[in-house]
Amino acid sequence: MALTMAGAVPTSAAPPPDPQTCVGQTPPNLPLTQPGPIRWGINPRVQVGQLGPVPATAAPAGQRAQRRQLLRGVGGLPFVLRLNRIFWPEPAGQLDALDSDVALYGGAGYLLELQLRYHPAAGETTTSPDEFAAWAAALVHHYSANSQLVSVQVTNEANFSLSDDSSDGGYTDVKDALIRGVEAVKAQVVADGVGGRVKVGFNWFYRTDPDN
Question: Which terminus of the chain faces fewer neighbouring Cβ atoms within 10 Å, N or C?
Fold first, then answer.
């Protein structure tokens, strides 16, 4: 996730930027250990997470143009479309929109990945991780027979608590939700007989700056 922040800061008080502490800069001497094959892809949906508590306004016209471009194909290369912002508890209309995207892009030959987000309402009890895990397993079961589904990401950046829109880390019991969700989804794809095709995992927020 790229972080961009802007504010009204007096120029006389602003220190010059330090290129050694640029947000997200990776040290050049990190050891590499047996890098595996890279599978390329993008998010085809109109919204991604932004830094803050609420999403930015969507731009439907841009989405239509992007869909037209995607449906022209990618020359037969393996290319994954990551269907993101699939939330629990499920907002109205979410499953219908997801069904439409899976049919549209899967039908066009793209491989698919699902990103399952954990966003319990304020005041939820500690049973939320179990409810999330059960929902995640049921949703994956709904799509597991689709041969284009190749991976599932459970939660998003559970270790980053400062941005509810982009990340799940600010929600109660998110780490338990991650663990139980991965276990439940993995058990589901194995039970459905697609454990060899559908990979199950999670991601994490790398860092903000070298001191954090």
Answer: C
